[in-house]
Amino acid sequence: MPSMGFVQQLATGAMMTIQVAVCAYLLALAIGTFFALITLRPTLLARIIWLPYASIFTGVPSLLVGFLFYYGGSQIVAGLLSPFGIGQRIEITPFMAAVAALGMVYGAYLADLIRSAIQNVPHGQFEAARVLLVPRSAIWLKVILPQMLRLALPGMTNMWIVVLKDTALISLIGLKEIMAYAKLASGVTKEPFVYYMLAACFFLMMTWLTYFVARRVETWAARGFHPVVTQGASHAL
């Protein structure tokens, strides 16, 4: 039987895992949306910013990025703030390093996903909205965004699951999330199977909950959408 004290620690670690995953995913979503919008029309400035960013953060493992942010984050922040005359040293915590690492890495992947979804929205939707003199902000919020969400939601759901599972790697930089507590409990009680199975059950439960919510969101996003079904030659009479 697992010790209730260690089970409570696992629950604490599970909450930390959820907090890191949510914050990292929101950061990745903001970064991905920004780069998706500026690269819709590839300008020289967009390429200068996007290509190095995508090359670095899609080519380097997220764990290595976490190590760089944790051990060198203070120097990076100080270097960015020094031109503005700010010399105060900011200490980077494991939580901050984990959120920044996962957010920066998966922001690059979400940028490609969101940009592809926007490009797959029929161009006639833009033209019809302009003909009706719909304001530009309303075009994006009320016409393009709902259709983009319907197209991008499956990929965004999978990306959330990947971010959630990658929080297990970040325990190596000192973050006390569920895998760190499972390792601690396993070492003390000499029952690794029990505590690692509890951690596995947590991730499986979160995955199931994600798919349950995603199905509801997909139903909401697809409201009013009636795809046209074309008959092939085998159905023609």
From TrEMBL:
The chain crosses the membrane at residues 12-38, 50-72, 92-111, 151-173, 193-214. Residues 14-214 form the ABC transmembrane type-1 domain. GO terms for cellular component: ATP-binding cassette (ABC) transporter complex. CDD domains: TM_PBP2 (cd06261). One of its GO terms (molecular function) is transmembrane transporter activity. It is found in: Cell inner membrane; Cell membrane. It holds the Pfam family BPD_transp_1. The keyword Cell inner membrane applies. Keywords: Cell inner membrane, Cell membrane, Membrane, Transmembrane, Transmembrane helix, Transport. This is Arginine ABC transporter permease protein ArtQ.
